[in-house]
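FIELD: query
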Amino acid sequence: MQTSDSKPGWAERPEVGQRIRYVLYVICGLLVLAELVVHRHTVMPLERIPAFYAIYGFISLVGVVLVAKLLRRGVSRPENYYSKDENDAS
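FIELD: result
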């Protein structure tokens, strides 16, 4: 917890977050370039598609989010689920 007179930590400064973002952009760019240069030993024909793993990962992520939304409907309870009911005799 931060008090009003203390300085923010190094991770809370906006310029640090921007630098981290730039480093991640550079790493992603290098990985894309490496995929174009490095020969991969593929097993399935689909793996030969450029950026196959990125596309597969994105589609998997979207699928997990959609399944989670469906599960939420089945397992969610009302906000007052654990509160004592007025009509409850116990």
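FIELD: remark
Residues 7-38 form one domain.
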